[in-house]
Every structure is written in structure tokens, then in C-alpha cells.
Amino acid sequence: MQPCHLLDDERWAESRIGSERIKGGYAWNTLEKSGAHLAFGTDYPVEPITPFRGIYAAVTRENEAGTQSYFPEEKLTIAQALYAYTQGSAYAEFSESYKGMLVPGMVADFVVLDRDLTRILAHDILGTKVLRTVVAGHPTYFSNTVTR
Predict the structure, then answer these.
(1) What is d(CA 15, CA 7) in angstroms, rounded to the nearest whole number?
(2) Is the distance from CB of 38 to CB of 32 less than 8 angstroms?
């Protein structure tokens, strides 16, 4: 699933599929509570490649201005959203035995961010910047703001 779609779809989805059917749309909290494995992605190139819009949508269920909420009972915690983008996605591609977590014996795919997503206001997620990207233990991107 791509939570970022909520940010655009909330404006028109209910009028197109109806008030009853929309209750089951983007039902991440309901799915998670049922034991389903949530696997999130960005849907690039349809949506921007950044996962931060999706993380924001998953934890707030609000438009980017923070002025409209969409079925807030379906919000996830930041931990649940990050899990869906990491371990959940690894599970969905049958690679959870070697990726999706930073533990010994698994590939080291990770990013270094300019902020701790678990300690900021939800709206600040949208301004997050990637400082460094590491794929399979090899640095592949360094922001010019990173000191080595």
C-alpha cells in the first residue's frame, strides 16, 4: 500500500465510491489489528519518491496543511508506520530473512535522516531530509550537509 495516496484521494474518494464503501479504504489500523502484514511503499513515479509523505499520512490521516482529517480512527503510530515501510515491505517480497531490520547477518540498507521521526511533531515529518543512504552496507548517497 502507498499511504501517500490518502493525501490526494481524501478529496474525491468518498464521492466516487460512496460513504459506506470508503470506510474500508485506507483502513490501516483495522488491518494491523486484524493481524495483517502492512507493507508500505511510495508508488514512485506516480507519487514523489519520498516516503515521508506516506509516513505523515499514516500517522496523522490529515491533509498536508493539517486542516482536514480523514477517518482518524485508522491512524497508525509512528512505530507501526516505520515497521510497514521496513520489515513489512521485506515480508511482502519474501526477503524478511535477510532485510528489513538492522541486525547482524542482514543486509545493511538504511538512511540517515536530519531528525528522529519518533521524537518530532507529526507535521514535521514532511520536512525530513535524507543525509545519507547506505545499500547493502555501501554508502550510495551523501548530502552536502553531512560531515564525514
Answers:
(1) 15
(2) yes
Does the residue 10 lie in any domain? yes
Rounded Cα distance, 117 and 121, in Å: 8
| Number of domains forming the structure of the chain | 1
In a domain? residue 33? yes
Cβ atoms 77, 84 nearer than 8 A: no
Using CA atoms, how far apart are residues 4 and 20, in angstroms rounded to an integer? 22
Torsional sign, CA 119, 39, 31, 48: positive
CA–chain centroid gap for 33, Å, is: 17
pTM for the whole thing?
A: 0.92
Could you list the residue range(s) of the whole structural domain that residue 47 is in? 5-142
Alpha helices in the chain (DSSP H): 5-9, 13-17, 28-33, 52-60, 78-85, 87-92
Q: What is the mean pLDDT of each run of 10 residues along the chain (148 residues)?
A: 92 92 92 97 90 97 93 97 97 96 94 97 97 94 72
In a domain, 148, yes or no: no
Q: Tell me, yes or no, whether 134 lies in a domain.
A: yes
